[in-house]
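Let's practice the habit of predicting before peeking. Look at the sequence and jot down your guess about where helices and strands might fall. Then scroll down.
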Amino acid sequence: MEIKEAENVQKSTAVRDGILLVLITFAVSVMFAFVYEITKEPIAQQEAKAKTTAYQQVYADLGSTESTDELTGLAASFDQAEGISIDEALLAKDSTGDVTGLLMTVTTSHGYNGTITFAIGYKEDMTVTGISFLTLAETPGLGMNAKKSDFIDQFQGQTDSFALFKGGTSTLVIDGTTHVDGISSATITSRAVTNAVNAALTFAQEAMTGDWRSEQ
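Done guessing? Here is the structure:
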């Protein structure tokens, strides 16, 4: 009798603990959903603000930007390089509203510590106006040096594909036309950024020969 009572108590306890666990899990899920709903809009606003700031940094005479169906479609279908995407492509306009080039947000998944995202601008003659990182979480003192002018300024003002050389050596890492010295001891980061910039150039060349002007 006592054994049965003990078994019943154990079963009852197990059921109670199971129900309690389900309730706790449900409550945590509801809490996370609630927090997400509260924070998603402010986060989206911060990301949009950071992108706008980056565009202004890479395109000195930027007056305004404009999205078109043509550019959005080209960006969505772009598959020139695996692991590299054109997240956004916009017309760059001056203060009078004339189109002067393109602005893009580019992401590569080939960084040493994951994804790297940056804004890049191109004039109509394919001149790179500048690059500004939106996401960069590489190794401090190594890959994070991609932000430094010694590396990133090598792309500015150029119009051709970039040939990457291993930092401090004559070893070719990526074939191209314009010489770029990689970051010392950070070849993976250097390669990821250079490949993404070259992919963006390919996209810009395609976009500049497209029909987006007909929408103006």
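How did you do? The helical segments are 2-58, 69-77, 149-152, 187-208.
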